[in-house]
Amino acid sequence: MGSLSIWHWLIVLLVVVLIFGTKKLRNIGSDLGGAVKGFKEGMKDGEDAGKPDQRTIEGEAKEK
Length: 64
Fold this sequence. Notes:
The chain is mostly helical.
């Protein structure tokens, strides 16, 4: 038994689209993209944790 050819993958893709529909697949893709973006931002914040935040203002916070 060899590897799957391009025709096998196209048939699998067609079946997945028929089962879930394009709208649901688009929503899954956007959710996955948002999760990856959030993960990257979290990693970036973790790297900056050792550095002092230049946006921080010393003193009391004013309430509205």
